[in-house]
Design goal:
This protein has helices spanning about 10-15, 30-40, 80-95; strands at about 1-5, 20-25, 50, 65-70, 95-105, 115-125, 130-135. It is of the alpha/beta class. A hairpin with a 5-residue loop joins strand 6 and strand 7 (about 130-135).
Length: about 140
């Protein structure tokens, strides 16, 4: 599995802890350092491989991943059409035939309501492991 814009591992670490082998790509070295630390604390370091790179030009072999995730509006951070087109072309290149690409789009973030421990996703990984994504959202009113 490949996670675009993995950051500190908010999605990666729970998946890795559940036994999913995951590559996380992010352009921020400090964020990737935090991902590695969080993975080690969770006992999931062997399941997470952190890569510093640009999602517009994924540095992986063609047809390498059967599952890609673009959580938390990462695609919405691409403000220029050319950047979104480059990213989607790069995703198509590394996705295996019949693979899946999960996209999470963020609607109108300033109007979100805060919540704690909401189950956002349940299912099974390819190896049969049970996965549950539990999410909490808090906002900083000053920064919106």
């Amino acid at each position: 599995m490949l996670e675009l814009g993995c950051g500190t591992g908010r999605v990666s670490v729970p998946l890795a802890r559940a036994g999913v082998d995951l590559v996380g790509i992010d352009r921020s070295a400090p964020m990737l350092d935090r991902l590695r630390t969080a993975s080690a604390r969770a006992g999931a370091l062997g399941h997470v491989h952190a890569v510093r790179g640009d999602i517009r030009a994924l540095p992986f072999a063609a047809r390498r991943f059967s599952m890609l995730l673009a959580p938390y509006g990462i695609l919405q951070s691409l403000l220029a059409d050319r950047d979104l087109i480059a990213t989607l072309a790069s995703v198509a290149r590394v996705l295996t035939p019949g693979g899946r690409f999960g996209i999470d789009l963020v609607p109108d973030v300033p109007n979100w309501r805060e919540y704690d421990n909401r189950i956002q996703m349940r299912g099974r990984a390819g190896d049969g492991a049970h996965l549950t994504l539990i999410e909490s959202v808090r906002q900083d009113p000053k920064r919106r």
